Amino acid sequence: MVAMDLFRSEEMTLVQLIIPAESAHDTVTYLAELGLLQFKDLNPERSPFQRTYANQVKRCGEMSRKIRYFQDQITKSGRTAAYRPLRDKDIGVDELEAKLTDLEAELLEINANTDKLQRTHSELTEFQLVLHKAGAFFSSVRNAANTVQQRADIENGSSIGEAIDRPLLQEQEMQTEPSKQARLGFITGVIPKIKAASFERILFRATRGNMFLKQASIEDAVVDPATGEKIEKTVFVIFFSGERAKTKISKICDAFGANCYPFPEESSRQGHMKTEVDNRLLDLQHTLDAGINHRDNVLNSIGNNLDQWTVMVRREKAVYHTLNMLSIDVTRKCLVAEGWCPVSAKPKIQDALQRAAFVSNSQVNTIFQVLHTKESPPSYFETNKFTNAFQEIVEAYGVGRYQEANPGCFTIITFPFLFAVMFGDWGHGICLLLGALYLVLNEKKLGSKKLGDIMEMAYGGRYVILLMAIFSIYTGFIYNEFFSVPFGFFGGSAYRCPDSQYSIESCPMATTSGMEKWSYEPYAFGVDPIWHGSRSELPFTNSLKMKMSILLGIAQMNLGILLSYFNARYFRSALDVWYQFIPQLLFLNALFGYLSFLIVLKWCQGSKPDLYHVMIYMFLSPTEDLGENQLFMGQTFVQIVLLLVALVAVPWMLFPKPLILRKRHVQKMQGRAYGMLRESDTESTDLEIDGEHDEEEFEFGEVLVHQMIHTIEFVLGAVSNTASYLRLWALSLAHAQLSAVFYDRVLMFAWGYTNPIIRLIGLIVFASVTFGVLLLMETLSAFLHALRLHWVEFQNKFYLGDGYKFQPFSFRTLSEEDDL
């Protein structure tokens, strides 16, 4: 891709397609595979349910629902879909719909049968536990009763055989009326363990104590037949007397969700029932296993093609949704489409149309024609994986107007550089570079994974981080800082200790009286390491970084104004050149360009004038003699001229442009009125209506107020934007001081001890705060400030950002949210 392709958006054109109805689906499909045509909605007044292909969209939505159901079933079964190549390559949408319907019906039937069998299995399991626990209770009671009876018979001298054959009630006692005889009954079942205590209290109160409850806890949790969840339960046996008590107890059991099961009184029947339940459980388990195996086989067959089916349904739904945007000509049995495409893509689109007509066996080819319109086209920049992140940074502020100058190509360099000015430390830059290299070298592997939100943002901006790291290493060498430690890589220092018996590193006067200069050869690259730790380190670095921030800011703002000239020239707007570009350039450089010139001149001369005094009295007292603050001959006269230029530039920006626009409008209306006299009465009436409509569109007062706002914004912004660039100095100073504090107060403090454990702890703490504060928080802070400088201080000089993005219909941009 040519480098200047990013400077202006691609040339776009509005095209019209007249598509035969029989090839409409294939045509839209081929265009979606190409991904270079943005369709316009030609039916904006219709709701989605009133459009032609609403039923097809509904069918695709139903297939999407079935696929979601299959995905949920696969997830619940604890397996993942095996994404394999599609075996049914020639399957159509109708066949897929029938296949999904059959699979859903089969899976629903399997699930229903499995649930029913599982519920029966859970009930039989509980019944088995009731037979075991209650049977054990009855056996223990019977054995205890026999033991007591044997003891009583021995004491009374009766034999055991007589005791067993003796009736429980005497003959006279059994001759009472049947209505007065009370029969003892019982109910057995299971209840959740957490409800057992409340269950017992309610039973006692409801029967007024006329019942006997026996409970036995189940060791392992059992599956509840109603909910299908494993819970702890208790087996209970309730003895009562009378039908009335039985009715009350049954209602209480239902209220507490207790499952009651029949329990025979005879021992022989109990054994027979246990055997029967065991056999039924065994048969049921075999049936369940077979059903689960069949269900797993069905889910495996679905999972093999689920991804391909998902993509197919997603594409079909997108195609029919796009077809709904087309206008239908019923008489000619064709569809009319309109859309935007790059001019360079017209041959590719025509080729796709021909292939679609051939595949669909259409006897008529699609008609492709260019439409001329005054509508503003969308903005389209052909980016790659390197430039895309920088273009996204620009478009986060606003999508550029069609073919206006794009700041994205400059942002590739200026954004990471301004970040590095605030972050300059080549030690931290190396750490950042290692992280960026990991993302870049593993981009294929990471791109195929689902990353978290933060990791996804870092991966998307991996090339931005890479350039930020490289520039940070460069500015770190300029600042001569490696985790706040200087290195003399580029030659010796121009300063030495006044006392010759001390070296530079151990000179005690470095923090008191200072060093003495012995060489006029400057340090080869960057800041002389002797400044680190000296008495004048902070004033020197403050002055250097503050002046450097102003120079960088004025340079970038001048670049923005220069780009406004290229915009005006490209759009052939002479008014913007003469009454916007020129006065803005003069105003900015008459004041702050002059300040930048003084900064550079002061550095070259090595003099000590007070630039604050020069700039303040340039406004307060322009004719006053500068005295010791004078840098060159005739400086006072130059300042007066520059001040007058700045004052003239303000009305130059404010008044001429609205007045010229008003004059042009009046001349246009006079020419139109002359043309009206030469037309017929009807035509002249129409022209008069049109003229009145155009006249209403131009309001001189509105244009004047708009121009006034822009003038005031630029004049005040020239001051505030220049001051805003001082954030480069402030954040660079903060980063350097934080780094020095962590190095001196954490690492060096721990290194002052000879204990290796203390040193290790100090190293860990230093690494933690360096990573958390300097490599994460400071990186984010510098990134946001660099973003602000580009959006506000740089782009507002030329970038309108009121366009809209080119969004072609493409299968590659479809996401999961678009179909499911």
From TrEMBL:
GO biological process: vacuolar acidification
Compartment list: Membrane
Tree of life domain: Eukaryota
Signal sequence residues: none
Chain segments annotated as transmembrane: 417-441, 462-479, 548-566, 578-601, 636-655, 757-777
UniProt xrefs under InterPro entries: V-ATPase_116kDa_su (IPR002490), V-type_ATPase_116kDa_su_euka (IPR026028)
Coiled-coil portions: 86-120
Keywords: Coiled coil, Hydrogen ion transport, Ion transport, Membrane, Transmembrane, Transmembrane helix, Transport
GO CC annotation: vacuolar proton-transporting V-type ATPase complex; vacuolar proton-transporting V-type ATPase, V0 domain
Membrane topology: Multi-pass membrane protein
One Pfam entry name: V_ATPase_I
The UniProt record lists the keyword Transmembrane: yes
GO terms, molecular function: ATPase binding; proton-transporting ATPase activity, rotational mechanism
Family according to the record: Belongs to the V-ATPase 116 kDa subunit family.
Function: Essential component of the vacuolar proton pump (V-ATPase), a multimeric enzyme that catalyzes the translocation of protons across the membranes. Required for assembly and activity of the V-ATPase.
Protein name: V-type proton ATPase subunit a
Organism: Physcomitrium patens (Spreading-leaved earth moss)
